[in-house]
Structures are given as structure tokens and as C-alpha cells.
Amino acid sequence: MKSKIANFSAGPAAIPQEVLQEVKDELLNYKNIGSSIIEISHRDKTFVDIANQAKTDVIDLLNVPNDYEVIFLQGGATLQFSMIPLNFSYLGKVANFAEIGSWSSKAIKEASNICKVNVCTSSKDNNFTKIENFDEWNIVQDTSIVHYCKNETIQGVRVNHDIETNYPLFVDMSSCLFSETIDIKKYDFIYACAQKNFGPSGITLIILKRELLEKSNKDLPNILKYDAHAKENSMLNTPNTFGWYVAGKIFSWYKKNGGVKEMEKNSIKKTNHLYQIIDNSDFYINPVFQEQRSICNVVFTLQNNELESKFLSGAEENGLFYLKGHRSVGGMRASIYNPLEFEHVEHLGQYMIDFEKKYG
Ligand SMILES: *Cc1c(COP(=O)(O)O)cnc(C)c1O
């Protein structure tokens, strides 16, 4: 089954067509319980089973070790920008934040309202096109956490190697979780909002080392405490049941389709297809340092930027949608998350080649 358009949206983003079909089929009467899944209690066994299965599948897909906790929250990745410093900044005098794109800048801004922040590296001066080598990061001593964003969704740049530090390592993986294989043990705290790679907005996945929970700030309202959410198995209050349910379906879709290893292989194949077309032309430009290019978000501009609106409207006429870059940076962006099929990417590539022939 193929989707109607090629959906390059950055988030909320494409969901596998089979999953949407299943949701549609089940929506009125979930597995013959006589009601919809979104009109029963989150404490009902039917929903609790869905919730537990989703959690088990996350653990399975990402090989989450036993000493880690998996939590489903609301409030998007943005709530994490405040919740992390609230829970952990008291551990040290300063929190270290890497600034490698728009999302890390936002995280820094929010954290600065709560604690003292040391920006340990910034690629603002090169317009977020090249991240400084980790050796050069200026991580101060007596620090609570080190925070970075693994994949900058807006600039299309990624941290492509491990960050080794003795301090607790916190990582925003909102736009790359499930698109690349990771060794969870190398991180202390991972978070990702769902609407890029695992469903509708309104769910945020947290994977954190359990020992961090014991050290977290207890002097907060319950709703802001990771510890309280973990103790209640992410049901401290009513969760986003619909989001959780759809996320669960996407996790099982991942399992059926080869797991994260296969997703990574496909992400590299799909994005390389476009990077090659860009690199083989003087017409398209991708400004990102080659080795740090995202395997989820391909950004590009046209040498002649007056042609951009023509490029975008022509793309839509060809069934290629949501290619406009983020409003803060302009240009074009093809977000290529796991559900997007290779043939859609090939279709975009062909459109780019044809457009260049016509206007280049
Ligand atoms: C989308 C995104 C966010 C923000 O997510 P919200 O759910 O809108 O709060 C944060 N970080 C990254 C890397 C993102 O891609």
C-alpha cells in the first residue's frame, strides 16, 4: 500500500500507511471490546496491556539495559528543556550545554532560566554547519550534566561520534531515535518527542539510568519529577492514551521491518541518494560539513534562491510535499524519517535533476 503523497514533513511527520490503516480499522471498536481505545480508562487492562507492550518493545528495539528506566511523558521535547535542569542542575554548580543548532539553542535558553549554564561549544559562528571536535569542547569541572542534541532537525547536522565524559550525559534524540543504532550504556539520559519517528505529537520518550532518579531533586511538584513518573509507571496522571497506542503500533512495525539496524541502513541509503545529487551539481547546495550531515533531515538551498518558490510549487505538482525549510532558516528541507519510502526519495531526486535541467 502506498501513501497518497510523498510526505517530507519535519514533524508531525509521516506514519506508516499500514499503521494508519490499522488505527482506522480499530478506532470504533477496539478488538471487539465494544468501544474505542480512546474512550476507556488508562487503568483498564486493555490499555495497560498496550502501554506495557509499547514499553517492552522500546526496550527490545533499543536494547535498553536493566538499570535504565523507560518513561512516557507529555509536554513534548520542550518540557524536557526545563524539566532536566529542574531535576538535575543542583548536582553541580554549572550545567554544560553544546550549542550546535536551533534546538540546542532553545535548550540553553530554557536551562539558563533555571541554572548556571556553560556553553561548552558553539557552532553559531559558522551558522551551525560544522560541530567542533569533542576534544575542543570546554567542559567545566564541578558540573551537573553535559547536554547535547544528537541531530539538529532544522540545520540538518548531527553529532556522528560518541561523546565520552565522566559527567552524566543528556541527549536530545527527538529527530533521530530509531533511525540509528545506539549503545544506550553510553548515555545517562535520552529523550525524544514522538512526532518525528514514532507517532502523533503529545508523547515524549525518556530513557534514563535508574541511579539518576535517586539523585534527582525531590523538592519539586510531582508532575515535574521523573522519579514520581517512574514510580507510577508513567501513569501519575492520565497519559496521552491515543499517542501511546499509535506509538506502540509503530514500535511493532519497526520490529516487523528489521528493527533499528534496518532503519539505520535505510536512512543512510535514502539521505545519501539526495546528498549525491546535491554534490554532483552546482545548482543545489548543502552547507553542512560532509561527515556531520544528518541521516534524517537533508537541507539544501538553490544557488539562485529566486527559484525556490518555483521549486517548491513544482514539487507539489509532482506530489512532493512539505519541502520548505524551517521558517527560521529558509531554503529546503527533506525530512526523511523511517516511514518514508525509498521510492519517494527517488522521486524527489528525479524531480531535482529535472528541475536543474530546466532552470540550471
Ligand atoms: C522537534 C524537536 C524538538 C521540540 O519538540 P516539541 O515536541 O515540539 O517540544 C526538540 N528537539 C529536537 C531535536 C526536535 O527535533
From TrEMBL:
It holds the Pfam family Aminotran_5. InterPro entries: Aminotrans_V_dom, Aminotrans_V_PyrdxlP_BS, Pser_aminoTfrase, PyrdxlP-dep_Trfase, PyrdxlP-dep_Trfase_major, PyrdxlP-dep_Trfase_small. This is Phosphoserine aminotransferase. It catalyses: O-phospho-L-serine + 2-oxoglutarate = 3-phosphooxypyruvate + L-glutamate; 4-(phosphooxy)-L-threonine + 2-oxoglutarate = (R)-3-hydroxy-2-oxo-4-phosphooxybutanoate + L-glutamate. Keywords: Amino-acid biosynthesis, Aminotransferase, Cytoplasm, Pyridoxal phosphate, Pyridoxine biosynthesis, Serine biosynthesis, Transferase. L-glutamate binds at residue 43. Its EC number is 2.6.1.52. Residues 7-348 form the Aminotransferase class V domain. It comes from SAR86 cluster bacterium. GO terms for molecular function: O-phospho-L-serine:2-oxoglutarate aminotransferase activity; pyridoxal phosphate binding. GO terms for biological process: L-serine biosynthetic process; pyridoxine biosynthetic process. It is found in: Cytoplasm.
